[in-house]
Specification:
Blueprint: H1 3-12, H2 22-28, H3 55-71, H4 84-95, H5 109-125, H6 142-160, E1 164-166, E2 175-178, E3 184-190, H7 192-196, E4 213-217, E5 231-233, H8 244-333, H9 340-357, H10 359-362
Antiparallel strand pairs: 1-2, 2-3, 3-4, 4-5
């Protein structure tokens, strides 16, 4: 990563960088002002990552992290000294008083894009008698304009605190507010019926008097969301326009709670990962011990087989020598008409053969046993089509209805 890219990343994440002349002052031994780090924003992660890594580098880093996790101790569970009440007070102070913005000509960029798309759809719909569902204008009806003004007020308030607001598509059912280096939450602003069952109530409301509700959620079921408000509704005493400050503060609180959930889940995943690593390490240790036991068992069998084979060879050689001496003694006592030269030649050849198979004379008993290979693992069960036994009459190219 170049110094320019590093500086851009630092500015993006609100990290102060050395000013002009900083390194010259450090080299000269003069003091240089070092600005402190900014406070962590709502929902922002404690760890910042810069640059990119390849797939091989990622795999190597994961392997090193697993080794450290297996060899070391688990990190302590995350602690959040700030209570929910203190968090809500800090969020309310950060957003301040949120005004209800009624002018959509300077709407938030995420909403301005949808408003422009509505204008394009309106121009295309002029002169057409058929209205298609995908040509529906999201913010054209009185209720839609009210939704746009409410969302614009919330988005502008969140943007002032450094949050990023976005949408997906021209007909979004939900809107996102995210921290640039942290978590994100989803906002849904619709009628209570559509929020409860959108499949049953698919028709969007058009009247401005239709009661609305706003609900905040994130990608997983919250495990630390107790004590915070995630839903606001139109009521007899207060409408959503009167609750904008509470809603904007609630979005920031939800971002921070989702970050806490994420860190808690990270710790839980580390605990599970360490348990998996311990189990796999124990299974690997047992596998190595079992393979060594089988190897030693096989080695003993090979040594025993070699000793028995050499004992049989020694007995055979001794039997051959005994037989040769018996034949020579019998020939000396009897006159069978065989010449002494033939008898001596036969005896010499027989004794040479006995010496060749004698493990003591040849030194074969001192030779080490054959190398013992690892035990052959049993073949896996026939699960795939090509592993099915041929006698079953089944063939992978055979149709199910063929005979």
């Amino acid at each position: 990563m170049s110094d320019v890219a590093l500086a851009k990343s630092c500015r993006r994440f609100n990290i102060p960088i050395p000013g002009r002349g900083h390194w010259a002052k450090v080299k000269a031994g003069k003091p240089s002002f070092q600005p402190p780090l900014a406070h962590r924003n709502f929902g922002e992660d404690d760890l910042l990552s810069f640059g990119r890594t390849s797939w091989e580098e990622d795999a190597k880093l994961r392997k090193e992290a697993d080794d450290l996790l297996l060899a070391g101790e688990l990190p302590s569970p995350p602690e959040f000294p700030e209570t929910v009440v203190e968090l809500q007070e800090r969020a309310s102070k950060a957003v301040g008083k949120v005004r209800h913005l009624k002018d959509l000509t300077r709407a938030h960029p995420a909403l301005a894009r949808i408003i422009r798309a509505d204008g394009v759809k309106l121009e295309k719909a002029r002169g057409e008698t058929i209205s298609w569902p995908w040509e529906e204008r999201l913010f054209e009806s009185p209720c839609g304009r009210r939704r746009a003004k409410l969302l614009d007020s919330i988005f502008q308030a969140c943007a002032r605190v450094g949050m990023r607001c976005s949408t997906s598509g021209n007909m979004p059912d939900s809107f996102e507010v995210s921290c640039p280096n942290g978590t994100r939450v989803s906002l849904k602003l619709d009628t209570p019926k559509r929020l409860a069952d959108p499949e049953k109530h698919r028709v969007r409301p058009t009247e401005a008097s239709e009661p609305l509700a706003l609900h905040i959620s994130w990608g997983w079921a919250p495990i630390a969301a107790s004590g915070i408000q995630l839903t606001w509704k139109d009521g007899d005493a207060q409408r959503l326009e009167d609750q904008l400050s509470e809603i904007a503060a609630g979005v920031l609180v939800a971002l921070e709670i989702s970050q806490r959930d994420f860190r808690q889940r990270q710790h839980d995943n580390l605990v599970k990962r360490k348990e998996e690593l311990i189990r796999s390490s124990e299974a690997e240790r047992k596998r190595i011990v079992e393979e060594e036991r089988l190897r030693i068992e096989r080695l003993h069998a090979v040594i025993t087989e070699k000793l028995l084979r050499e004992a049989d060879a020694l007995r055979t050689a001794q039997s051959i020598r005994t037989y040769v001496h018996a034949v020579l003694a019998a020939c000396n006592l009897s006159q069978n008409g065989t010449s002494d030269t033939e008898i001596e030649a036969w005896a010499a050849a027989s004794l040479r053969h006995a010496d060749s198979i004698d493990p003591v004379l040849s030194g074969a008993f001192l030779a080490p046993p054959d190398p013992v290979s690892s035990p052959v693992k049993p073949a896996p069960p026939a699960n795939s089509a090509r592993d099915r036994p041929a006698e079953s009459g089944w063939h992978p190219n055979q149709k199910w209805n063929s005979r």
